[in-house]
Design brief:
This protein has two helices and two strands; from the N terminus they run ββαα. The protein is mainly α. A two-stranded antiparallel ribbon has the order 1-2. The radius of gyration is 19 Å and the shape is elongated.
């Protein structure tokens, strides 16, 4: 049985949804995106802080991890926004 989160709007707000359902599938996707985002952010920060003299490969890896963290954050915002609209 899927878990449900009840969202109530103002009493006179007819456009607000009365019920938003958060399914197990949505939770799984959101948690996976969050974990990947955090891992890439930590990897980028680790390379930036603890590598004394980064090579071009390390700089490229740090940039890639930073980009993936930004994309992951955008995906999380998109998932939450899509769920709120739905």
């Amino acid at each position: 049985m899927p878990a449900a989160v009840v969202t109530q709007g103002a009493p006179n707000d007819a456009a607000a949804p009365a019920l938003t359902t958060v399914t197990a599938h949505f939770k799984l996707v959101f948690i996976c995106v969050t974990v990947i985002t955090l891992l890439t952010l930590v990897a980028s920060l680790y390379i930036g802080i603890f590598v004394a003299k980064p090579t071009e490969a390390a700089k490229s890896a740090m940039d890639t991890c930073s980009t993936l963290a930004n994309l992951g954050f955008g995906a999380m915002v998109g998932l939450l926004g899509g769920k709120a609209v739905n």
